[in-house]
Amino acid sequence: MLEQRSPLHQGMALHVSDTSTSGLRVLAVLHSASGAAAEQAVLWPLCAQLQRLGQKVLLLDGSQTESLHQPGLAQLLVQHAWQAQAGLRSSLSDNHSVASLPARQGLKQLKLTADEMGMDLLSTLQAYVRDYTTVILYASSDALTPLFQGKGQGLQPLLVVPPDADHLIDSYRQLKHLSVFAGAECTIAALESPLAAEGPQKYDWSRQQSSVLTAQQNAQTRLQRLNALLQCSQRHLGDAPVLMRLRWRQASDLHQLTLHMLKTACILPMHSQSTGLAEPESLAWSH
Fold first, then answer.
1. How many whole angstroms separate alpha carbon 133 and alpha carbon 194?
2. Residue-wise pLDDT tens digits, 83-127
3. Are 37 and 146 in contact (CB under 8 A)?
4. Strand partners, 57
5. What is the predicted pLDDT for the residue at 189?
């Protein structure tokens, strides 16, 4: 089952660069405390790859809490949409940095703001981030679940599985939560551990064998458990998630994942009204 991949449109890099017709793309990456290191090892290169494809990326980081000294989405939602839009601007001069805002509290407050505006959650979010072409929501399955109502129904979040096999049970819990409470399917990015440095082989005294054989056995165990995860999802959740391989320092794997994420993103049409507003001096957002 590890060889199953959804068909990808190889010309999508040219298609997504036309922001005049594509609107706002919303992507989602699942966050868990135990797998945060592996998730961010995929998240930041994914942001950089999107920027290389011509996207202006904003990361709403649900793993970080807003504060007085570190304002984020919660403070943004306090402003009227037109005020926030004037103050939150992407930087066109620096293509190597990614705009990021803490969003743990803001994602919870988004529903109240949406109810006040009489809109669904993603359309409400769009009103505050119109200067960007791609927004990535990095948050827990609990925080992401309400976003799959309305226009977010087609969104397919990314679940990063760390190289060790111990996180597979937690991965299945997240898949089940999104399937039961949001009716959402996921994409799994199976992150592989880096290859051992070249040099003389070492001896694994715990198994009384070479380190190379131990690495091969660990890889085989991981393969079997990943297959079990897919089969369990197929049997109990009704569908197996798409599984994509992410080898260490393989640019082609990251490129394939980026194209797949763009293909499964939720696309919100761009608003026709002009948003060229003067920036209030009291609003200064740092990225």
1. 33
2. 666 556 655 455 567 899 999 999 999 999 999 999 999 999 999
3. no
4. 134
5. 94
Q: In this structure, is the dihedral angle defined by the CA atoms of residues 41, 44, 50 and 54, taken in order, positive or negative?
A: negative
The distance between the two most distant Cα atoms of the chain, rounded to a whole number of Å, is: 70
Question: pLDDT tens, 127-137?
Answer: 999 889 999 99
pTM of the model: 0.81
Alpha-carbon span 141 to 31, nearest angstrom: 7
* Residues in CB range of 209: below 8 A, 6 or more apart: 203
Tokens 């919870």 belong to residue: 108
Instruction: List strand residue ranges (DSSP E) for 122-200, in order.
Output: 134-139, 158-161, 187-191
As given in the structure block, the two tokens for residue 16 are 């997504």
For residue 153, the number of C-alpha atoms closer than 13 Å in the C-beta half-sphere is 4
Give the whole-angstrom CA distance, residue 80 versus residue 87. 11
CB 77 within 8 A of CB 106: yes
200: how many CB neighbours lie within 10 A of its CB? 5
